[in-house]
């Protein structure tokens, strides 16, 4: 597949009239000479959004089976791109080939998961309450509820998952599954990768004869294109993964629109890890090894990176720190995704190092490339953190702080005071269960996922996954951006009262023509097998 650097607007391929851009290889910071990308101007953003608006009714009217086939065709197309896709992603992001191959599998798997969700039909939440004409003192009308799509969705590709959280990532897959057309803003950090995947979606859409505006991909640099996109009246929801500043800016814009719309932004998280006394006494060395492996994985560029560890003072904590320091010292520096993310990491590390009460414990091997990140581990005390909560600001990369507590009550106080998180982890043994109960109660109010005896990096894509959490982990703690329930973000319920069968949505018709699970008069009704 030939890259051209153009915008994909519905079925069309159009050269933008905005600024020219070249993709950058973060390894040597050199521009990748082909192709030359051009940014969209406001008229192209408008065309993409208007086409999406026109596509909405015919696209939402498609059979769930047609949309399932669409998602599967995208998954097949991504896999068929083979090394063309992974090699381009590798030079644009510096991520190792093995990681990208795994991420490609995950991306295809996510798309196929949503295809199976569509076929199974529970996403429509079809609920029927039959009429009770004889009820006293008042009769009950026939009431039926199901969920319908919100409308066109703007998706911002994430820098750190060029496939799984980008053009055909979880936000796009869940929005398309719901029946929402999608306009993606390509991330500047992997422009060619975005075009390759965008062309697969465009081809699949054409082949299945879906409405033209079902999918568009626009390129922009700086906030203009993104702001125009989320301000467009055709757009009815936003999916975003990135910085807290970026997410907050989009939330503000969307709240200030004449018609405010929901923004599902995944932003910042430091993913606390609590080492309970029994676990620390029995497993300090093994936990330290696994912790450092998780910390430096992917140069720490995971939203679930464990950025803060808490434990009670004593020889067991010293043993943990000694092993973590020795293991970190063996870890090579790794190339970060972009020069910008690398400089933000360097700034963050300098900020932490300069804080009062912070002490360096160990570093990984020194970097040889200008955009490589060296791992860093620091320690401080609960008292210092309490006096300066700013120390806990996310540093995106392989840096973490160990907080030495005087007792478990301080760990609990920390759990109550920390802001919202994507994950919280407890390492424990049976003797720690009473302390664990208090920590779980505190952390389940903040985090989307609470883990025992593991590390949060590596997010399973499945029905029970919650990749969310209270602000600022996300802008809406009621939802997830990973797993099948991500579709909920782009749906809303409608109740149909006293409708004749002919006017009802198919999910609610008397004969259950979609053959889906429904709730009928308070009982679950299985489809016919
Ligand atoms: P970012 O700067 O927030 O950018 C993400 C996307 O949003 C880009 O397409 C960007 O456009 C757009 N954008 C940002 N601010 C905007 C605004 N005010 N208006 C409209 N669009 C806007 O994130 P990033 O480039 O991926 O990484 C930068 C930092 O984000 C990292 O250092 C890290 O701290 C954080 N991050 C967090 C996560 C996480 O999962 N929690 C993941 C990735 C990154 P342009 O690039 O064209 O400006």
TrEMBL record:
SUPFAM superfamilies, alphabetically? ALDH-like
Q: Is S-adenosyl-L-methionine one of the keywords? A: no
Tell me which species this is from.
Pseudomonas kulmbachensis
Q: Which CDD domains match?
A: ALDH_KGSADH (cd07129)
Q: Output this protein's name.
A: Aldehyde dehydrogenase (NADP(+))
A Pfam family found in this protein is Aldedh
Instruction: Say if the entry is tagged with keyword NAD.
Output: no
Domain Aldehyde dehydrogenase residues, every copy = 19-469
What UniProt keywords apply to this chain's record, in alphabetical order?
Oxidoreductase
């Amino acid at each position: 597949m030939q890259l051209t650097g153009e915008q994909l607007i519905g079925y069309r391929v159009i050269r933008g009239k905005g600024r020219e851009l070249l993709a950058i290889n973060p390894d040597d910071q050199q521009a990748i000479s082909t192709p030359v990308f051009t940014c969209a101007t406001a008229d192209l953003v408008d065309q993409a959004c208007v086409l999406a608006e026109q596509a909405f009714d015919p696209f939402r009217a498609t059979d769930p089976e047609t949309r399932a086939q669409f998602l599967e065709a995208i998954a097949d197309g991504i896999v068929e791109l083979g090394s063309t896709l992974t090699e381009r992603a590798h030079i644009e992001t510096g991520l190792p080939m093995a990681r990208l191959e795994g991420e490609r599998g995950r991306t295809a798997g996510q798309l196929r998961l949503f295809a199976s969700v569509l076929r199974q039909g529970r996403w429509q939440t079809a609920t029927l309450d039959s009429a009770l004409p004889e009820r006293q003192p008042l009769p009950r009308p026939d009431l039926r509820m199901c969920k319908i799509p919100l409308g066109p969705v703007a998706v911002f590709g994430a820098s750190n998952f060029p496939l799984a959280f980008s053009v055909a990532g979880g936000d796009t897959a869940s929005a398309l599954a719901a029946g929402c057309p999608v306009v993606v803003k390509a991330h500047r950090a992997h422009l060619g990768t975005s075009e390759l995947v965008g062309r697969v979606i465009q081809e699949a859409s054409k082949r299945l004869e879906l409405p033209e505006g079902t999918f568009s991909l626009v390129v922009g640099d700086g906030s203009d294109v993104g702001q125009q996109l989320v301000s467009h009246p055709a757009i009815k929801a936003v999916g975003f993964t990135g910085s807290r500043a970026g997410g907050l800016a989009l939330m503000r814009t969307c709240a200030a629109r004449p018609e405010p719309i929901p923004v599902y932004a995944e932003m910042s998280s430091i993913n606390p890890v609590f080492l309970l006394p029994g676990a620390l006494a029995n497993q300090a060395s093994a936990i330290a090894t696994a912790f450092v492996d998780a910390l430096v994985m992917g140069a720490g560029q995971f939203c679930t990176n464990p950025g803060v560890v808490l434990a009670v003072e004593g020889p067991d904590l010293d043993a943990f720190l000694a092993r973590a320091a020795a293991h970190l010292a063996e870890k090579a520096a790794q190339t970060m995704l972009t020069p910008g993310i690398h400089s933000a990491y360097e700034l963050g590390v300098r900020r932490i190092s300069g804080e009062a009460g912070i002490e360096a414990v160990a570093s990984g091997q020194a970097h040889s490339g200008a955009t490589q990140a060296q791992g860093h581990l620091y320690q401080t005390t609960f008292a210092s953190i309490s006096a300066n909560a700013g120390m806990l600001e996310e540093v995106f990369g392989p840096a973490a702080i160990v907080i030495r507590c005087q007792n478990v009550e301080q760990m609990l106080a920390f759990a109550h005071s920390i802001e919202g998180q994507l994950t919280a982890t407890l390492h424990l043994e049976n003797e720690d269960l009473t302390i664990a109960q208090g920590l779980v109660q505190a952390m389940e109010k903040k985090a989307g996922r609470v883990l025992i005896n593991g590390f949060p990096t590596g997010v399973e894509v499945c029905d029970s996954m919650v990749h969310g959490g209270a602000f600022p982990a996300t802008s809406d703690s009621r939802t997830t951006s990973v797993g099948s329930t991500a579709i909920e973000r782009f749906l809303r319920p409608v109740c149909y009262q006293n409708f004749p069968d002919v006017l009802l949505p198919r999910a609610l018709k008397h004969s259950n023509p979609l053959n889906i699970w429904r709730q009928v008069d308070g009982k679950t009704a299985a489809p016919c097998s």
